[in-house]
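Lab notebook, bench 4. Still working through the backlog of constructs that have no structural model yet. Next entry is a single chain of 367 residues. Request: give me the structure tokens for it.
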Amino acid sequence: MEWYKISNEAAVASPAMLIFPGRIRENIRRMVAMAGSPERLWPHVKTHKLPQVVRMQLDAGIRRFKCATLSEAKMAAGAGADEVMMAYPLYGPAVDTLFQLIGHFPGTRFSVIVDNQPQALRLEAAAQAYGHPLDVFLDLDVGMERTGIKAGPEALALYRSLAASPWLQPRGLHIYDGHLHIADRQERERASEACFAPVEALAEAIRSEGLPVAELACGGSPTFPIHARHPERVLSPGTTLLWDAGYSGKFPDIDFLHAAVAFTRVVSKPGNGKLCLDLGHKAIASEMQPPRADFFGIAEYELAVHSEEHLVIAFPGADNYEPGDCLYAIPRHICPTMALHGQVWAVKDGLASELWPVVARERAVGL
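Model written out:
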């Protein structure tokens, strides 16, 4: 039987996500091998949002994790993480929630990112009010143009002010180059190093003033192997844990296993050469241009309709399928797909045997 199929299809309601722990463990092994040691890894949890996957990484010696939401931070800390970085700007009630997490998980070291002085002052006031100094990373914009400050004099001045605060403790620089989706490996390497040149200049300027830059937290999955060649950088891949069709198609030089599969059924045959599947917007990420997934056994298809609960595809051979038949697919973008599912099936020895709640998909954080 093919690796992605389950022997108990009749027991699994669709649409569903199938997770393969054995393949995840192999991906973790490859991550550690690429990094050279587990200590260099600071992987993101936003892809999977599962404590079981955090524990697999802990078993491999990985102790630190990045998060995009406070719910993810709570999940990682609850799973036993030594360190948790909130790699997302915190404002409003989120600041209080962070300090509540710090109090609730005294064994976990928390840090946040900062990219402007008013934000730093708010965090400083909160740290003083809670009586707990806060670790901070200066967030740099190296081309993503999403969050962060450009490396330069303004960034140096902000880092200097962080170091002068009695309640904020600068740990280093946070650098995310998620805009670098260049397929060619050599061109991607050149673009990555060009983005990093101002970062290195800033780090040197900071150190020349006698200030610490303990960590350079770098990159995502596409630039993971590039940053891995620089031993002074810590590495923050996330998609490498589950992998998806988008990255495997664009980056053949990065070798990880698909470990998450969408399970769907034919629910109707709307016309010759078409199938309607129960894989709507609410079951698979649809923020990108089609196709949404790569189906096993279907080389090419046309997306005819994609709505809340339905996905209609057209392809030669569609008439060979009947309503109720099961199909399997690798999502093109696994991170938002996982966030659509309240629970996933863990597959062991070809059997969907255990339901795992996707606990960190919730936004609310209860303590």
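Notes after review: The chain has a mean pLDDT of 97. The longest strand covers residues 260-268. Flag for follow-up if needed.
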